[in-house]
């Protein structure tokens, strides 16, 4: 709350402020409030668990003295506001606590596991965009008003169905076809470049289907716009009309949803990593939940949450760069 | 209920409905019929591949995978539906908070919802799974809570839409309590979209549940749902892949069924609101009747002087019930420096004529003509580079709405420069400096600065002048302006018209001015073409408008108020409605509205002879008839 109230008056600072400054301040304010909510929620998580989290983690047979010592070490007997204050302090100094099962510092576990997850998410997103944009644009041009009814129906139906199938089931299918049946590609770990193929594929297929569908719809709408007729009136080649004039405008509209998709891809790694035994955060968070290693879970939840928030912020900034009106538009 | 039946009409909707019903039936009967088969342990036959006895093989205790998958339907569906109920109930509470608690508290809840929906569902589900614990109950709560923010947002949007309506406000004024008006007025009105979305979320919940069970966080042994079977199956995928593939397929089928069923219902109900596509009557019968009227007569033979020569131009679009022809064979020519106005009501085909002569008709439409020459070059030929070059440099277009006619994501200078770079091979820098020069020539102040701005930083009048400037990037012989002043303030309309006039004078540029405003055309143009129902009904010098022969032109002129108009009298209007291009009547299209119409007018279409297409050209109009019809129009 303290953070929220200190942020609220900020937009009024400069009356004469440039639109970019106002946009930056407002967007930063939103990011900070969301961050505060995320951190507070992950703090409360341990306190919302019914019963004693330490007892749950150490098991019913652990001696009472050990449980008491661990509670003391984690400060769980302090008043809750004191605990909150310590939690925030530790977080800002990079101290994420100690894993109750492995006794390793949580920050070590996170920094060791994070790169593999990031590689997977970023690679899958890049491939998804590289597939979805050309596909969506082509489909948009082919199915613009009065054209390609059947193509549209086939494309939309296929992409809706593919978009609904969850990534871990696609992953299972890929393991069966390319791992078990054909034996072409490795299905576990990230030791060789070829072991990236199946996880990336499993993660990008669904988002690419959804994204290309959105881009098609936007493309069809933009191709009806007056400024596309103006561009055609300049008698420039069709390619320039589609790629130079229609595409940037179709993308600004697709970008918001694209951001949501990228955000969900970050989280989608959890399931895909578990199929392919990928040594990232996703397999760690699941085993930590099962082992009731709550400090590790807390830290990973924050890492995923921060990644999602940063993606959302980046999307808004990209949107403002592509279409300056969006800065003014948002309230 | 009948609207809901529409779902069954599309193949996708029918398939989704059948699948959903199938899944639900299976959920009810499978555990009754096959529980014993599913639980029968056979240790002599573990992890066996598919056989005639076990269609999908067996698991690590020798149990039949196929039967286990069928029996698991009930638990999987039950858990998904329970989670959906939680999501809907919590979502409803969150979403109606701003209605029940008032604006301030509501804003707080809404901000919370907005922050929560920014995080992906799986992340929320994991978060709640930690709090509620591992196992089926914990997973139901986790998936339910994870789905709640999205549902809350939906509810909030729907409630906000309804709460602002009059009847809710009236109920409030009448002293109906908030809870009461929520249940009596608001919820019944948003029930439909909520039910549809709940169906879709049931599908998503089913898939999410499979995900959690697959991670080992959901259903625990000895119970099993599809996700649990998948979890057990994936570990032995090299021995018996079917142990993973069969439950996996079941998840996909059931998830798709709920999702697509919900989407189909949404689509069916949505169509119900709009009311379907109006069915247009067939026009194909009339198309055969259209004679190439007057193709040979009008256009001048003095080719050197002619900028644009159009003969028997037709534009046809495919319609839902046969082709529609909004432009039905028109011919005219434009000479160097001449200004030709085209007037008519909306739907008369005047804008489409402009698009057709400039080869900008959407390629779903078919443009045909006996002749379509620009500066002696046939434009009917296939889209060639030379043709594009000619059109790009010799013909300038000005469109109706300057607010939407520029690309909002590009700077103005670049948009002007583009055609010069393509057609004149100028470098980026040279093209931009020409663009600045052109902006100056259309009287835009500080053109260097303006060229760097985006369209939304220009006023409407400035944009329209910039649009004209864009046309002057080449060396136009013809400007086609389609309602160039309609979207502008009255004060800037004159500026734009003056600009067009000065360009014409300076470079002897021809102008085609499309307008519904006969006074604007009369003021700017040398010659006026009056269009009605896709034809030219009169072609006359602008100076002779007041002595027009065709009853339609005379009606247009009579509708213009002048200095002598008695402002206490109602303004004159043309009685009746313009002709629908998909249903052009036989004979003269104007006959139904014409005070001079005779039996001949209703059967034979008059040709354009001596500048007018009318069987009764110039005959006196009985004013009383017009007045009587006017009264009838007002009375109706």
TrEMBL record, chain A:
It is found in: Cell membrane. Its main location: membrane. Gene3D superfamilies: MetI-like. This is ABC transporter permease. PANTHER family: DIPEPTIDE TRANSPORT SYSTEM PERMEASE PROTEIN DPPB-RELATED (PTHR43163). Residues 114-315 form the ABC transmembrane type-1 domain. It comes from the Bacteria. Pfam families: BPD_transp_1, BPD_transp_1_N. Keywords: Cell membrane, Membrane, Transmembrane, Transmembrane helix, Transport. It comes from Nocardioides caricicola. Belongs to the binding-protein-dependent transport system permease family. The chain crosses the membrane at residues 31-49, 120-142, 154-176, 196-215, 296-322. The lineage of its organism: Bacteria, Bacillati, Actinomycetota, Actinomycetes, Propionibacteriales. It is a multi-pass membrane protein.
UniProtKB/TrEMBL annotation, chain B:
Belongs to the binding-protein-dependent transport system permease family. The keyword Nucleotide-binding applies. This is Dipeptide/oligopeptide/nickel ABC transporter permease/ATP-binding protein. Residues 73-262 form the ABC transmembrane type-1 domain. Keywords: ATP-binding, Cell membrane, Membrane, Nucleotide-binding, Transmembrane, Transmembrane helix, Transport. The keyword Nucleotide-binding applies. Residues 310-558 form the ABC transporter domain. It comes from the Bacteria. SMART domains: AAA. NCBIfam families: oligo_HPY. Pfam families: ABC_tran (PF00005), BPD_transp_1 (PF00528), oligo_HPY (PF08352). It is a multi-pass membrane protein; Peripheral membrane protein.
């Amino acid at each position: 709350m303290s953070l929220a109230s200190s942020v609220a008056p900020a937009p009024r600072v400069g009356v004469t402020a440039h639109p970019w400054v106002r946009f930056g301040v407002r967007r930063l304010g939103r990011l900070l409030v969301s961050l505060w909510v995320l951190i507070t929620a992950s703090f409360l998580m341990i306190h919302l668990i019914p019963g004693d989290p330490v007892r749950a983690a150490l098991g019913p047979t652990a001696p009472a003295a050990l449980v008491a010592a661990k509670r003391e070490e984690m400060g769980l007997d302090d008043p809750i506001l004191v605990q909150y204050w310590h939690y925030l302090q530790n977080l800002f100094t990079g101290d994420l606590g100690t894993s109750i099962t492995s006794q390793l510092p949580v920050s070590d576990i996170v920094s060791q596991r994070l790169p593999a997850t990031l590689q997977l998410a970023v690679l899958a997103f890049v491939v998804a965009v590289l597939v979805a944009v050309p596909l969506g644009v082509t489909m948009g041009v082919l199915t613009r008003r009065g054209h390609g009814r059947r193509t549209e129906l086939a494309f939309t139906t296929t992409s809706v169905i593919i978009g609904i199938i969850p990534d871990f089931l696609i992953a299972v299918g890929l393991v069966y076809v390319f791992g078990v049946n054909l034996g072409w590609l490795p299905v576990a770990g990230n030791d060789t470049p070829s072991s990236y193929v199946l996880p990336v594929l499993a993660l990008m297929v669904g988002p690419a289907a959804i994204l290309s569908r959105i881009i098609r719809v936007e493309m069809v709408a933009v191709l009806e716009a007056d400024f596309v007729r103006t561009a055609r009136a300049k008698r420039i080649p069709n390619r320039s009309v589609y790629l130079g004039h229609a595409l940037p405008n179709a993308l600004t509209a697709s970008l918001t949803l694209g951001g949501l998709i990228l955000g969900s891809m970050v989280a989608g790694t959890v399931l895909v990593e578990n199929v392919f035994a990928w040594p990232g955060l996703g397999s760690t968070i699941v085993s930590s939940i099962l082992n009731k290693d709550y400090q590790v879970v807390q830290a990973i939840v924050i890492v995923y949450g921060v990644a999602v928030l940063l993606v959302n912020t980046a999307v808004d900034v990209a949107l403002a760069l592509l279409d300056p009106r969006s800065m003014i538009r948002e309230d | 209920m009948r609207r809901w039946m529409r779902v069954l009409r599309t193949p996708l909707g029918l398939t989704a409905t059948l699948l959903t019903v199938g899944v639900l039936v299976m959920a009810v009967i499978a555990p009754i019929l096959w529980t014993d088969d599913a639980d029968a342990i056979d240790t002599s036959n573990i992890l066996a591949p598919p056989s005639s006895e076990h269609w999908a093989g067996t698991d690590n205790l020798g149990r039949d995978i196929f039967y286990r998958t069928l029996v698991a339907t009930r638990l999987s569906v039950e858990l998904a539906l329970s989670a959906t109920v939680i999501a809907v109930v919590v979502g409803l509470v969150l979403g109606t908070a701003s209605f029940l608690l008032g604006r301030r508290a509501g804003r707080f809840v809404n901000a919370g919802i907005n922050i929560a929906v920014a995080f992906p569902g799986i992340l929320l589900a994991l978060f709640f799974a930690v709090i509620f614990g591992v196992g089926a109950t914990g997973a139901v709560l986790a998936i339910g809570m994870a789905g709640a923010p999205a549902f809350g947002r939906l509810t909030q949007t729907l409630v906000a839409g309804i709460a602002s309506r009059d009847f809710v406000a009236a109920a409030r004024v009448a002293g109906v309590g908030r809870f009461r008006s929520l249940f009596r007025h608001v919820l019944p009105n948003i029930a439909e979209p909520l039910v549809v979305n709940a169906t879709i979320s049931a599908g998503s919940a089913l898939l999410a549940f499979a995900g959690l069970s697959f991670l080992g966080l959901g259903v625990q042994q000895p119970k099993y749902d599809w996700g649990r079977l998948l979890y057990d199956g994936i570990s032995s995928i090299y021995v018996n892949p079917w142990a993973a593939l069969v439950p996996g397929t079941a998840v996909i089928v059931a998830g798709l069924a709920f999702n697509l069923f919900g989407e189909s219902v949404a689509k069916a109900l949505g169509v119900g609101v709009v009311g379907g596509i109006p069915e247009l009557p067939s026009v194909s019968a009339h198309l055969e009747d259209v004679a190439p009227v007057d193709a040979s007569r009008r256009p001048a033979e003095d080719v050197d002087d002619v900028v644009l020569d159009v003969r028997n131009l037709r534009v046809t679009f495919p319609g839902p019930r046969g082709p529609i022809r909004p432009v039905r064979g028109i011919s005219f020519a434009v000479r160097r420096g001449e200004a030709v106005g085209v007037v008519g009501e909306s739907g008369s085909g005047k804008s489409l004529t402009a698009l057709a002569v400039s080869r900008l008709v959407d390629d779903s439409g078919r443009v045909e003509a006996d002749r379509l020459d620009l500066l002696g070059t046939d434009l009917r030929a296939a889209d060639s580079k030379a043709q594009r070059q000619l059109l790009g440099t010799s013909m300038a277009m000005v469109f109706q709405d300057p607010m939407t006619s520029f690309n909002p994501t590009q700077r103005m200078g670049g948009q002007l420069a583009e055609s010069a770079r393509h057609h004149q091979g100028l470098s980026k820098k040279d093209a931009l400096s020409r663009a600045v020069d052109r902006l100056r020539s259309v009287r835009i102040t500080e053109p260097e600065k303006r060229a760097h701005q985006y369209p939304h930083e220009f006023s409407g009048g400035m944009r329209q002048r910039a649009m004209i400037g864009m046309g002057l990037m080449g060396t136009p012989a013809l400007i086609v302006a389609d309602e160039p002043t309609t979207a502008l303030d009255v004060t800037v309309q004159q500026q734009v018209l003056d600009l067009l006039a000065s360009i014409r004078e300076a470079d002897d540029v021809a102008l085609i001015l499309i307008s519904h405003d006969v006074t604007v055309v009369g003021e700017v143009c040398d010659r006026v073409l009056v269009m009605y129902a896709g034809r030219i009904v009169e072609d006359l010098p602008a100076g002779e408008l007041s002595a027009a022969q065709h009853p339609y032109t005379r009606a247009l002129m009579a509708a213009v108020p002048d200095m002598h108009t008695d402002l206490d009298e109602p303004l004159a209007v043309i009685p009746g409605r313009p002709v629908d291009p998909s249903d052009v009547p036989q004979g003269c299209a104007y006959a139904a509205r014409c005070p001079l119409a005779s039996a001949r007018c209703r059967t034979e279409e008059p040709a354009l002879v001596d500048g007018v297409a009318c069987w009764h050209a110039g005959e006196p109009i009985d004013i009383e008839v017009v007045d009587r019809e006017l009264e009838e129009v007002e009375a109706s």
